[in-house]
Amino acid sequence: MKIRNIIHFGIIVLLCMAATSCKSSSAKKSTGLISYEMVSITETNEYLEADVTYPQFKKFNSLNKEIARNISALHDAFKATAQQSWQEIDAMRKSYGATENTPPLVHYISCDPIIAGPQYISMLFTIYQDEGGAHGETLLQSVTYDTKLKKNCINY
User: Fold this and answer.
1) Positive or negative torsion for Cα 112, 115, 116, 120
2) What pTM was estimated for this model as a whole?
3) What radius of gyration do the chain's Cα atoms show?
4) Is 93 helix (H, G, I), strand (E, B) or coil?
5) What was the pLDDT predicted at 5?
């Protein structure tokens, strides 16, 4: 009986792992003057579809840390409530007789364009999130980094 329970538990774990995927990748790029790598994180499961992409620059560690920290904070905040929000939406839809699957909540973050000159790196981040309403929400955030002073000079 114990062995059978262990096997059932193992099968359930494997099915859960197959149903939820999370992967990370990177692609090297250059603006001509400055090399960078685009880090990409994708997650897909029943309640969340996420595609987060952000740059990491060669020789600018403080900028890289700030970008990674800010992007991670945005994505982690969305993920923290996504499953419960989706479950509430799913239950409400089913109570009204919906028979089709509830679509996952969506979270996309991208960075384009990236413009670099001898003194500045300028980036525009686009954040799109759909939390299950009639339409999603798009937010824009620009970052301009002074490569000589090694600090953000504009961040709106």
Assistant:
1) negative
2) 0.79
3) 20
4) helix
5) 39
